[in-house]
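Changelog-adjacent note: as of this version, every example in the card shows the full chain rather than a window. The one below runs 128 residues end to end.
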Amino acid sequence: MNLPKLMVAASAAVVCLAVSVSQAQVEVNIGPAPDCPYGYFEYPPYACAPYGYYGPEWFVGGVFVGGGPWFHGPANFRGHVDAHFDSRNGYKGPMPARGERMDPARPLDRMNEFHGSEMHDGHGRVVK
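Full-length structure tokens:
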């Protein structure tokens, strides 16, 4: 191979490498969302939240739509929570056990006994 062809091939390889490196993305794997029947607290370490912490708007067809880093709901999502059930506020009551399933007699999208005390976005921030 003569020198001009070698230079062109080397230049093409450098350009391809530069393009592939410039398009690389950094990915941080925080692990899967915990398997929680009533959702999880939206702040690290994302422990399971007790029944009644989240309002019905956080559930679709009885399935928790999320909070924290796993939340991919609509932009500007707002949802009620009952802060009395927050362990940061001193709650020490019952929490779901590993592998526990939701009680079909207490549908999550129709919680009559829910009493929201705060409005949160999907990332744990209190919304006024």
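Structural remarks: Residues 39 and 66 are 7 Å apart (CA to CA).
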